[in-house]
Design a protein that fits this description.
Immunoglobulin-like, 8 strands, about 15% helix, 5-stranded mixed sheet, about 140 residues, mainly beta, 3-stranded mixed sheet
């Protein structure tokens, strides 16, 4: 009976070490101790200075002249305060924004002017009937 008691005690001690991870830690083949799982960083969206262009009820774009600096990053947003849908086009940087009547558009992609000069922007839907145009002046 004494042998049975010792066997039970030894079995419980062995079970304790197995359950608790008893032996020392293992080291990967590279010799480094494992650390916390690495996480892939979340990409951060590029952001430029926001330029807001307003389409008015009088079929105008405000401001009519937009001044930008060469080499600085920008984004456009169309604020539609008119009673019609508007689509703002800035061909130089391939920007096209749409806003339904009374709503604002999404923000455009980031762009960086790479040349000084004066560039066109216009409202695509109503420009044929109204002079909904603006100019973008890029200076050094």
């Amino acid at each position: 009976m004494k042998k049975a008691g010792i066997l039970v005690a030894v079995g419980m001690v062995a079970l304790f070490f197995v359950a608790c991870g008893g032996g020392g830690g293992t080291t990967p083949s590279g010799g480094q101790t494992p650390g916390p799982a690495s996480k892939t960083p979340t990409p951060v969206a590029a952001v430029g200075e926001l330029v807001k262009v307003t389409g008015t009820t009088e079929f105008m774009l405000e401001p009519s002249i937009i001044e930008l600096k060469l080499g600085k990053s920008y984004q456009f947003q169309l604020l539609n305060r008119g009673n019609n849908s508007y689509r703002l086009r800035v061909p130089r940087w391939d920007v096209m924004l749409f806003a339904q009547a009374g709503n604002d558009s999404e923000v455009s992609k980031v762009f960086t002017p790479d040349a000084a000069g004066v560039f066109d922007c216009f409202e695509e839907f109503n420009a044929a009937r109204h002079d909904m145009r603006c100019s973008i002046k890029v200076s050094p």
